[in-house]
């Protein structure tokens, strides 16, 4: 059985990936890390330390990706009505998806939120 990755290390890898996307900036509304593009959030990273394991929240509107994310251990539709719009919260504790898959979901969320000109930079790069 593979060793479980450190949830904070996984969170940091996902954060670094998100901040590397064109036009991405980190802000701290509500004392929690979010990454935005064009003033719109595309990934919630939460607080570094707090109640419960770290997790990420992404917007997945493609049915297959959404279903895949919802199948992760502990995953749930995001609260405050965001789940109805495709937002999924995925804990980074035991059984969390691999970092590469989390990055794919962050990229999909980015593409959903980002202006087309910025998404096009990903395809060109």
Explain how this protein is built.
The structure is a single chain. This protein is an alpha+beta fold and 125 residues long. The protein has one domain: Alpha-Beta Complex (Aspartate Aminotransferase, domain 1), CATH 3.90.1150. Helix content is 36%, strand content 22%. It contains four helices and six strands; from the N terminus they run αββββαββαα. The protein has a six-stranded antiparallel beta sheet with strand order 1-2-3-4-6-5, covered by helices on one side. The longest helix is centred in the last third of the chain and has 15 residues, at 99-113. The radius of gyration is 14 Å and the shape is globular.
Short account of what is shown:
The chain is an alpha+beta fold and 125 residues long.
Mean pLDDT: 92
Cross-sheet strand order for the largest sheet: 1-2-3-4-6-5
* Rg estimate, integer Å: 14 Å
Q: Estimate the global geometry from the Cα principal axes.
A: globular
Salient structural properties:
alpha+beta; Aspartate Aminotransferase, domain 1; six-stranded antiparallel β-sheet; 4 helices; globular
Describe the protein's topology.
Elements (H helix, E strand, L loop, with lengths): L6 H13 L4 E4 L5 E5 L2 E7 L8 E5 L3 H8 L5 E2 L9 E5 L7 H15 L2 H9 L1
Antiparallel strand pairs: 1-2, 2-3, 3-4, 4-6, 5-6
Helix pairs in contact: 1-3
């Amino acid at each position: 059985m593979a060793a479980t990755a450190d949830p904070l290390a996984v969170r940091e890898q996902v954060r670094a990936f998100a901040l590397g996307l064109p036009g991405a900036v980190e802000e701290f509304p509500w004392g929690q890390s979010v990454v935005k593009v064009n003033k719109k959030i595309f990934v919630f990273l939460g607080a570094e330390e707090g109640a419960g394991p770290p997790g990420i929240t992404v917007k997945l509107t493609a049915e297959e990706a959404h279903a895949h994310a919802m199948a992760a251990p502990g995953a749930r539709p995001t609260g405050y009505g965001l789940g109805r719009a495709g937002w999924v919260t995925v804990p980074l504790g035991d059984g969390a998806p691999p970092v590469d898959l989390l990055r794919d979901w962050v990229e999909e969320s980015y593409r959903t939120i980002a202006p087309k000109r910025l998404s096009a930079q990903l395809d060109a790069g």
